[in-house]
Amino acid sequence: MTEKQEKIVSSALRLFAEQGYASTSTSKVAKEAGVSEGLIFRHFKNKEGLLQAILSQGQEKVSHMFRSLESVNDPKEVIRRIIELPFSIEEDQKAFWKLLYALKWQANVYDDTMSIPIKQVLVPAFEKLNYSNPAAEAESILILIDGLAVAVLLRKPEQIGAIKQSILNKYHL
Amino acid sequence: MTEKQEKIVSSALRLFAEQGYASTSTSKVAKEAGVSEGLIFRHFKNKEGLLQAILSQGQEKVSHMFRSLESVNDPKEVIRRIIELPFSIEEDQKAFWKLLYALKWQANVYDDTMSIPIKQVLVPAFEKLNYSNPAAEAESILILIDGLAVAVLLRKPEQIGAIKQSILNKYHL
Amino acid sequence: MTEKQEKIVSSALRLFAEQGYASTSTSKVAKEAGVSEGLIFRHFKNKEGLLQAILSQGQEKVSHMFRSLESVNDPKEVIRRIIELPFSIEEDQKAFWKLLYALKWQANVYDDTMSIPIKQVLVPAFEKLNYSNPAAEAESILILIDGLAVAVLLRKPEQIGAIKQSILNKYHL
Amino acid sequence: MTEKQEKIVSSALRLFAEQGYASTSTSKVAKEAGVSEGLIFRHFKNKEGLLQAILSQGQEKVSHMFRSLESVNDPKEVIRRIIELPFSIEEDQKAFWKLLYALKWQANVYDDTMSIPIKQVLVPAFEKLNYSNPAAEAESILILIDGLAVAVLLRKPEQIGAIKQSILNKYHL
DNA sequence: GATGAATGAGTTTTCATTCAT
DNA sequence: AATGAATGAAAACTCATTCAT
């Protein structure tokens, strides 16, 4: 990726996350990135291609996040780490996650693949802890994580520490 | 509201929910509603006005949902009812909620007012049950509800019963 | 067709014929027709649709031209009339024919249907005159007609009368 | 001409002939030729220059075709040879002729120079055969040739042999 | 000679909105 | 109230051409 390509991707990510994919014109992106509009199409074929480039670039970082979970053995530690995921989204990753969550609501874009690796780690953890329905417990955590992500990304929850504690308590962590 | 007005509102709601507000053109709405494009603007002034009409029509039904909570006295019952809210979204209301959740991610539209009445009922309930941090507990529930809404509206969760049970257990309900 | 629609069609026909379909922008057409560019797309869906509208409008007039041939009985008269067709293209029809001939050379547009009704009249005529290979004679006439059309539409052949006579002589007309 | 230059010219010729000059972008040409887009401009200055290169390269081969006619003395043989010209277009020359004929219809490109050497040979031939209007006869042949070229280049005439015979008969050849 | 990134002007197309009827 | 023709501005995308390397 050339410097300008990266500039396009990062500008687009910021704008798509802030104003939505559909409401952000390619000309806004070009202006923000300080390049000609044509360059976007030369590098990414079309607006959709630009979105895909953003998405797959993000996926890599996400996979990296998840991979660190695989080495953890203690089931309680696994669950704690997963619950803490939304709280540990770094400032420069927020735009990516905002975009991803916003896109969920757009028909035909919904993509659940991200939850699969989490489930693969969670279910065994609940099994080890002898929960009666490990699959349902894993689903519940995923649901909780979605809620936490909304809170972290859209609101700036004041009592974030207290909330985290309250949730961890429910799982005796 | 005349019959045609209602047709416009319901068609717009369906389309906005499915494809997003920004990606739905007024001409698509007109076609779906079987009316002329001009009529939308005669009745709702502009696209934004149409959205507002949809939103305030929905708000009425939402207020109604909440009002039934006020009469409940038993704190455990209050909490249970609130957790069950997302599961009780009726099929014909789903489009409205999808639209509302999708709009959350659109900059400058985020609106937290809906959570206020819930908090006003939840905090006293947790106080009565002697939870150590009732405000944080209330926040946690709101977060959970957002997660549940995503699940109910976007996925077709098979084990929805088991999930609900797992969550209620956390609150000893 | 409204007045503006017809204005668009006639302007487009003139420009497409003069400068070629691909080299004529819709904005040129709009300017020439004195309408907004958007109107072209509202009425004809896209540039291709505008072309089709021009073509099918032209086809009607052409069919009319051909229908008058069907009532002729004398085979010699049939042949003479057909040979004279290119010479009888009226000034206001020239643009249509220029466009049609130009499009022939564009891959995937070539369309031979126009020659079918001519063949259906020509072959029987040559049969009646006891030509040894009526089908080949009909084809030869069609070929000649294409050549004549090129001459009439692109050049202003000086000795047009003499040329016509020379050709008719070949068929003893 | 370097190898790459020739690759550009031959690719451009094929594409211009198949899809038209205006509808063929320089980037398509570059891709087809397997060279960078910039190279086209380094070698041919601009798109128009590329076209001219194709055209003048073709002209050479055409002149060669005509030159062989000059040595023929028998007037009947001259006429026969000229009528046979369109049938003798070799497969690898068809693209060039298609391009040339397509360009005729593009305003301000029409170029009649090619017909001049033919006329210079044909008129004397008809004079020798005592035709009453040799100039008109020559024109008729040119017109016929245009028609034959359309047939040979655009259609795949099955009965081409029969057609050729039918035409030669008209000139008692 | 050759590449490919980059541009700017233009092209096709969409869309919210207005207006005469 | 209702239509549908019409618009102007902006959107997505294309393309011939330039230029640094």
Sheet with the most strands, sense and barrel status of chain A: none
- Biggest interchain interface, per-side counts: A-B, 40 and 40 residues
Order of helices and strands of chain A: HHHHHHHHH
Distance between the terminal alpha carbons of chain A, to the nearest Å? 44 Å
Q: Give the strand tally of chain A.
A: 0
Portion in beta strands of chain A: under 5%
Brief sketch in words of this structure:
Chain A is mainly α and 173 residues long.
Account of the protein in words:
- 4 copies of one chain form a homotetramer.
- By secondary structure, chain A is mainly α.
- Chain A has 9 helices and no strands.
- Chains in contact: A-B, C-D.
- The structure holds a DNA duplex (21 and 21 nucleotides).
List the helices and strands and how they pair.
Four copies of one chain form a homotetramer.
Chain A: H1 3-19, H2 26-33, H3 37-44, H4 47-70, H5 75-84, H6 94-104, H7 115-128, H8 134-154, H9 160-170
Helix pairs in contact in A: 1-2, 1-4, 1-6, 2-3, 3-4, 5-7, 6-8, 7-8
Chain A binds a DNA duplex (21 and 21 nucleotides) through helix 3.
Characteristic terms for this protein:
homotetramer; 173 residues; mainly alpha; Arc Repressor Mutant, subunit A; 9 helices; 72% helix; elongated; DNA-binding
